[in-house]
Amino acid sequence: xxxxxxxxxxxxxxxxxxxxxxxxxxxxxxxxxxxxxxxxxxxxxxxxxxxxxxxxxxxxxxxxxxxxxxxxxxxxxxxxxxxxxxxxxxxxxxxxxxxxxxxxxxxxxxxxxxxxxxxxxxxxxxxxxxxxxxxxxxxxxxxxxxxxxxxxxxxxxxxxxxxxxxxxxxxxxxxxxxxxxxxxxxxxxxxxxxxxxxxxxxxxxxxxxxxxxxxxxxxxxxxxxxxxxxxxxxxxxxxxxxxxxxxxxxxxxxxxxxxxxxxxxxxxxxxxxxxxxxxxxxxxxxxxxxxxxxxxxxxxxxxxxxxxxxxxxxxxxxxxxxxxxxxxxxxxxxxxxxxxxxxxxxxxxxxxxxxxxxxxxxxxxxxxxxxxxxxxxxxxxxxxxxxxxxxxxxxxxxxxxxxxxxxxxxxxxxxxxxxxxxxxxxxxxxxxxxxxxxxxxxxxx
Length: 445
Ligand code: SAH
Ligand code: SF4
Ligand code: F3S
Description:
With 445 residues, this protein is α/β, with parallel strands linked by helices.
């Protein structure tokens, strides 16, 4: 199309934002936009933002500042802010940065083409509603382009948990699940376009309770039921899901980890702290012991499952003893991979009203926790040496003839030789462990 305009999207934050960016690009495709990976080439720049920690939110303003010269040179350029900063700060963004023409929240991006038309006409366009209509039903079809072997699929959005530190219930709204039939259709479409692995996404994905599909289905489906229905799709070889809350880890989901072959042996189950006092102050509604017993039950169902998690250190009121309780929990659980963060006070959340602890103490604790988590990650990676795992290959590596893929346990695996192509699912024997990846050799079929 000679007259098509170009859209540059930059994505911050979680996997749900990655999925949303894909859907926004598709929605804009209907409005005559094709993607570009160069901002200086774009007719529209869209930042899909994250509000989870202060640093993430501030990055947006520094990034916007950098577009000043571009906009001066090309007054036709339109600049938009989407995602969680858009939802949280709305008009404030336009006040702080007059370069911005358009602001759209995560629940209203199906209206992006209308907003773009308004911005193109020279008006400021803002939509941060939580509309009644179903965003997913209103989004245009997903296009027909071939896809890589892995894809994200959002099945649940929003959060009703209100952890005291977290902005998500405010930026993403109340928990809502997509109907199972809609999810199954989208999964079949993805598989038809070359996808072999789907990661189901939700801020609280295991709280999924979507309208059931099929004859006599009636009522709602749990995540486990949805996973079992997805597992029936020929050509879909692997299923994952993220992120889960411990209190929604239902028995049927634990059972699925034991007997659903396509469900991969990896579970991201954040606990945030190992201190009951801090967990209570965080409004997590579970104790450290409940979490540890839950992990035991999951491991009884699937002994080789790799557990990952998230931690916050330096939460208001956290003492040395609280922090030691976190270290003790980590030693007991043995994580394969973790994300850990220093607490960041977020405006509008209950914890933001409380006194911060000494930042040096918090930094020191984070360093100690991260050292322990790194050591555990290395131990678990080294224990993979000599084992045979499935690897879904995604792309060429940096070395000649090298291919990179993900193992069943979500480790990055490098293999050289063996005539492997992107999209191949092969058995690989692990031979070596590097800081953030494994190496292996293909096993003769
Ligand atoms: N829904 C997911 C988490 C989404 S946010 C869950 O409940 O697990 C991802 C991670 O960011 C959280 O698990 C938490 O560890 C971290 N996080 C959230 N708010 C934070 C804050 N105010 N300061 C520091 N880290 C935070
Ligand atoms: Fe945030 Fe807690 Fe909801 Fe996770 S469960 S999104 S940490 S409020
Ligand atoms: Fe960030 Fe919003 Fe995801 S705040 S972590 S982009 S839900």
